[in-house]
Design a protein that fits this description.
- It is globular and about 95 Å long.
- Helix 3 runs antiparallel to helix 5 and helix 6 crosses helix 15.
- It has an 8-stranded mixed β-sheet with strand order 1-2-12-14-13-15-17-16, with helices on both faces.
- The protein has 29 helices and 19 strands.
- The chain folds into 3 domains: 127-218 and 443-547 and 565-581 and 605-687, Zn peptidases (Aminopeptidase, 3-Layer(aba) Sandwich), CATH 3.40.630; 220-440, Glucose Oxidase, domain 1 (3-Layer(bba) Sandwich); 696-754 and 777-870, Transferrin receptor-like, dimerisation domain (Transcription Elongation Factor S-II, Chain A).
- Strand 13, helix 15 (473-495) and strand 14 form a beta-alpha-beta unit.
- By secondary structure, it is of the alpha/beta class.
């Protein structure tokens, strides 16, 4: 049989290589089984006939001569022997052609849908428009308000019972909206277990949405006792601070939960210390240097600093390095802009000014060194993980206090009560600071969901954290509300038949407030998978805390961020776009502190530069993706402007009542952010060519180097040359991605016309198939596959661009951070430092030799990245 028809492997290969529809394997196997049986029967029949004609198969025996009669007698069997295989071949061709043509059309339709959003049929432009229109029609203010009232009317501290209940609520939301069957057993998987590992690593095998909860086991602390006293000459207290917020009854939840969560710092050190108090403004590097310049001695002192400029951790670490005994951090009304009691506004809840008893809790973890579980740096916090000594938490105690209590301490210092300038004057009396905390392993829960796409090797990740210091109506519930609207909208798309081109993974992180713990542990757990799969990470944290929209992201995403925001309506003015909200301000007015306004204007100018999209640094869950794993990332938020109501960050007054009265009374900002982040994710998931602009990124590198050269007044010519080579390579990639997409679209349109013109007739299909076999051009499957691979290659390079900034040995003294393009400043916390290793070699280390070494490292990275783009 093999000599006539070819081996079974050969003819099965003809089918299997040309059909890639999900059902093709099963149908091909059925076809092959049928044909194999048919040809086996034919072989037996032909072999039998061969023996019947009297032809010998005995070794050495002479053949019997044939007479004329015998020849005539055997003519018909010969004809029959020739006809049977021909008939079988005809049946084979017809049957195979019918099945193959059906499979082929299905394959073409499937491939076409992969690249052209076949949720609704029709051409790419129309179907894309319909997908986006349907998506944008779902999020609404009524739903957003209801969800905010669900999530923001109770405390949900990381690791608490309430936090776990909310994790299950999010799981149910995913299940309900994505059509995921719920079982009696919650899909709760300990980190490191086979179930947890396969839930992420086997995403490429999914055909339907799924959701689960990963449980990690970090070391965290909880507040047990805090105390603050002014001591008399005899060492006994003459004043004891009330460290609990007042819980005004006009704010129902604030009154109900005023004692629910202590006023303490996450990861703060245990301590009971006493000493004179010194005022150090923001506790920035410059503030401490200024105090040292006037001869201030910090040894054994308690340092009083205000929130702002940098994060809490560097404030405490700076004082610790100077020999201080402890740190107290307060919220100063000067940083509220115009809306102050001094300007005639009533304090919240009677008015928009700061409630004087409000306390800003928060972490003092040094996450500019490394985030996540302090005892498992660089690897996941499994239950049985090997623990190391914490390397990113302070060693001296600290506590947060209110403005009301801070006024009492400032009075002890003297003339600082009027100007609050840096004089280095310390109090005559001693201050006692007590901070008792309990460090232990505390389980946390990341709730995850996946919508599988057609391309199994590319994933868009969307994330928002769930835990709050108390109720957290803005932080993070406003972000959760926006995310919930996205989930509802994606659920509607799924019900309509849509399926994304790429996978979409949605994460509801835990323990972000302690130091980005949930996202960091997951990122460390699945680092290899993320670097292979993730095309982008989209973060949302605080959706709404004020009136001014700010967008932050990798420069390669800046154009997408801006363009999408221009496609979303403004929350309150239909004649404007969401992007126009970057210029919005609050409804109040009045004079503001000059120093605060100078700082605010500096930030605004930085934001207004170039694309209008700020650089990411740290401070939220994008950190592990961008700074360690090289995934292009973004974030967005409405922030407090100088003319907005005071936002009570991490206080009991970050409440539903405040949000409905001042934060976002209509909840349209919540909706706008949801539409924007969801639409950005859609465009990343469903675009043929990923909307990543590497050339914008490459051009901005010149600005980074300009800043460095301004510090030294010396050129870094080799690095500059390397940047320019990278820019040229990126420009060529721009040309290639346009051509690659154009070629694929032309072929898709051709396939679309041909496949829709196919007649259902078996005969016509066979004719088409025969023409294809004998050399007719037919459907351009090979060209289509080649074009798709060309697109894939371009997309691989686009994703590789951000990865190209990673150095295995990381940034000196904080090696967890691998990104040499941008990172949180060592002293700045949430503010970005460009070319961080190089910049800090000059600004902090003041080491020219080290700076040249860092410039060389950057040059090598950019040269390698150029080769990748040109390959």
């Amino acid at each position: 049989m093999g000599a006539i028809f070819g081996s079974s492997s050969e003819w099965s290969g003809l089918v299997s290589t040309s059909c890639r529809h999900p059902d093709s394997k099963k149908l091909t196997q059925l076809l092959n089984d049928f044909l194999y049986s048919l040809f086996a029967a034919l072989n037996v029949t032909m072999a039998g006939e061969k023996h019947q004609v009297g032809e010998t198969d005995l070794e050495g025996q002479a053949e019997i001569p044939k007479t004329a009669a015998s020849v005539e007698k055997t003519a018909w069997p010969r004809i029959r022997r020739g006809w049977v295989p021909l008939a079988a071949l005809a049946v084979y061709i017809c049957f195979r052609a019918s099945v193959k043509t059906w499979l082929y059309e299905q394959d073409v339709q499937d491939l076409h849908s992969h690249w052209t959003f076949q949720a609704f049929g029709g051409n790419k432009l129309d179907s894309t428009k319909k997908v986006e229109e349907l998506f944008l029609s779902v999020p609404n203010a009524k739903s957003a308000l209801a969800n905010s009232r669900k999530y923001a009317t109770h405390p949900h501290l990381a690791g608490s019972k309430e936090d776990f209940e909310d994790a299950k609520v999010m799981l149910k939301l995913f299940q309900d909206q994505f059509g995921i069957p719920a079982s009696s057993d919650i899909p709760l998987y300990p980190a490191g277990s086979a179930e947890s590992r396969s839930s992420t690593l086997d995403i490429h095998k999914l055909t339907k949405p799924t959701a689960w909860i990963d449980e990690y086991y970090p070391v965290m602390n909880t507040g047990k006792e805090v105390g603050l006293e002014i001591l008399g000459e005899d060492g006994k207290p003459v004043w004891t601070a009330e460290l609990v917020e007042d819980g005004d009854p006009a704010d129902p939840e604030a009154a109900k939960y005023r004692n629910a969560v202590p006023t303490w710092h996450g990861f703060s050190a245990n301590g009971d210390v006493a000493g004179e108090i010194i005022y150090a403004n923001y506790g920035s590097r410059e503030d401490y240097d200024n105090l040292l310049s006037v001869g201030t001695n910090f040894t054994g002192k308690i340092v009083l600093v205000r929130n702002g400029v940098n994060t809490r951790g560097p404030k405490v670490e700076g004082a610790q390095e100077l020999g201080a005994a402890g740190v107290i951090i307060y919220s100063d009304p000067r940083d509220d802009g115009s809306v102050t009691v001094e300007n005639g506004y009533k304090p919240y809840p009677a008015g928009p000014a700061r409630n004087p008893t409000a306390v800003e809790r928060g972490t003092v973890q040094l996450y500019a060194r490394y985030p996540g579980d302090p005892t498992t740096p660089g690897y996941p916090a499994y239950e049985n993980a090997t623990r190391t000594e914490s390397g990113n938490v302070p060693k001296i105690p600290s506590i947060p206090i209110s403005w009301a209590n801070a006024q009492k301490l400032l009075a002890e210092i003297g003339d600082v009560t009027v100007s609050r300038k840096l004089t280095g004057i310390s109090s005559t009396s001693k201050i006692r600071l007590v901070n008792k905390v309990d460090f232990k392993v505390i389980p946390i829960w990341n709730t995850m969901a996946v919508i599988p796409g057609h391309i199994k090797s590319e994933t868009v990740i969307v994330g928002c954290h769930r835990d709050a210091w108390v109720m957290g109506a803005a932080d993070p519930v406003s972000g959760m509300v926006s995310l919930a609207e996205v989930v509802r909208a994606y659920g509607t798309l799924l019900k309509s038949g849509w399926r994304p081109l790429r996978n979409i993974l949605i994460a509801n992180w835990d323990a972000e407030e302690y130091g980005l713990v949930g996202s960091t542990e997951w990122g460390e757990d699945f680092a290899e998978w993320i670097q292979e799969q993730a095309v982008s990470y989209i973060n949302v944290d605080i959706s709404v805390g004020g009136s001014t929209l700010i967008a932050l992201g990798s420069p390669s995403l800046a154009h997408l961020i801006r363009r999408t925001a221009q496609d979303i309506p403004h929350p309150s003015d239909p004649k404007r776009t969401l992007w126009d909200a970057t210029k919005d301000s609050g409804p109040f007015s009045g004079a503001a502190d000059a120093d605060f306004m100078a700082m605010h204007n500096t930030v605004s100018q930085r934001r207004a530069a170039s694309t209008g999209v700020q650089l990411l640094s740290s401070g939220s869950d994008f950190t592990v993706f961008l700074q360690r794993l090289g995934v292009a990332s973004m974030d967005q938020t409405f922030v407090q402007s100088p003319t907005d109501a005071a936002y009570h960050y991490h206080s009991i007054y970050d409440s539903q009542h405040w949000m409905e009265k001042y934060g976002d009374p209509t909840f349209e900002r919540h909706v706008a952010v949801g539409k924007n982040l969801g639409l950005i994710a859609l465009r990343l998931a469903d675009s043929i060519i990923l909307p990543l602009n590497t050339t914008q990124y490459a051009l901005e590198l010149d600005d980074y180097l300009d800043f460095v050269e301004a510090l030294t007044l010396a050129p870094y010519s080799k690095l500059r040359k390397s940047i320019h080579k990278l820019q040229r390579a990126s420009a060529k990639l721009d040309e290639e991605k346009v051509k690659a997409e154009q070629e694929l679209r032309e072929l898709l349109n051709k396939v679309h016309r041909k496949s829709h013109g196919c007649n259902k007739s078996i005969l016509r299909r066979v004719i088409r198939w025969i023409k294809h076999v004998v050399g007719s051009r037919g459907l351009p499957i090979r060209k289509l596959i080649k074009a798709a691979k060309r697109v894939q290659k371009a997309n691989t390079k686009l994703v590789a661009f951000e990865r190209g900034f990673l150095a295995e040995d990381g940034i000196s003294s904080r090696e967890w951070y691998k990104h040499l393009g941008v990172a949180p400043g060592k002293w700045l916390g949430n503010s970005a430092t460009t070319f961080p290793a190089l910049t800090e070699a000059l600004t902090l280390e003041k080491n020219i030799t080290l700076a040249h070494h860092e410039a060389h490292r950057l040059t090598e990275l950019f040269d390698k990245l150029t080769i990748v783009l040109e390959s």
